[in-house]
Write a structure and sequence with these properties.
single chain; about 220 residues; mainly alpha; Arc Repressor Mutant, subunit A; Tetracycline Repressor, domain 2; 2 domains; DNA-binding transcription factor activity; HTH_TetR; transcription; transcription cis-regulatory region binding; DNA-binding
Length: about 220
């Protein structure tokens, strides 16, 4: 009798349960809020409490603080990219998509998260690099299209946009976050209008590039 060789059927990796995914999302949302309010050194126990989960659930999803900070930063970048992509697909107007990206970035408190990228962990982590490249590539595409359509002035670059968003969405020193929120989108729109073509004045200095921001 000839022996028959049975090829094992590869088992699919189990999909995370829906409740586990919801817990992870709650942790990331709570961490984003608390990092914005108190900085990246906020105790993880406090994040667990705000998320409504146990400490063990936080550590099961994120083995250390760096992993959680990185996830928060990447999730913020991903949401801002999706907002701009959606705007571009809905309107086809590159400058409107650029505006939606900027306002979404302000809502996501990107100004509070940027310092965490440069000071708390490995800036070259592949996940962070990939998220950053997606943002840079999309914004560059939007700016190029807006410029080709005669909507964007010629003397501004990616770095000008990101510095403006960060500065205008950061509460002034000594001002409570909630009190400053009501001014953010008004002043951000004034800034964005200043990027429109035709230019009303000559800008001092040179355009701020991606390379300038990475230095």
């Amino acid at each position: 009798m000839t022996a028959t060789t049975v090829t094992p059927v590869p088992r699919k990796a189990p999909r995370p349960r829906a409740d586990a995914l919801r817990n992870r999302e709650r942790i990331v949302a709570a961490a984003r809020e608390m990092f914005t309010e108190f900085g990246p050194e906020v105790p993880l126990d406090e994040i667990a409490r705000r998320a409504g989960v146990g400490n063990a659930t936080v550590y099961r999803n994120f083995p250390d603080r760096d992993a959680l900070v990185r996830e928060v930063v990447c999730s913020v970048m991903d949401r801002t990219v999706r907002a701009a992509e959606q705007a571009l697909s809905e309107t086809g107007d590159a400058f409107e998509a650029l505006e939606r990206f900027a306002h979404t970035a302000a809502d996501e408190r990107i100004s509070a998260l940027c310092p965490m990228v440069s000071s708390t962990f490995d800036r070259s982590h592949p996940d962070l690099e990939e998220a950053r490249r997606r943002v840079e590539a999309l914004v560059a595409r939007l700016m190029d299209r807006a410029r080709e359509a005669g909507q964007l002035r010629d003397d501004v670059e990616y770095g000008d946009l990101m510095v403006g968003v960060a500065q205008l969405s950061r509460p002034p020193a000594g001002t409570a976050c909630m009190n400053a929120d009501r001014f953010v989108h008004r002043h951000l729109q004034l800034f964005l209008d200043g990027m429109r073509a035709p230019a009303r004045s000559a800008l001092p200095g040179s355009a701020v590039t991606v390379e300038d921001l990475r230095r």
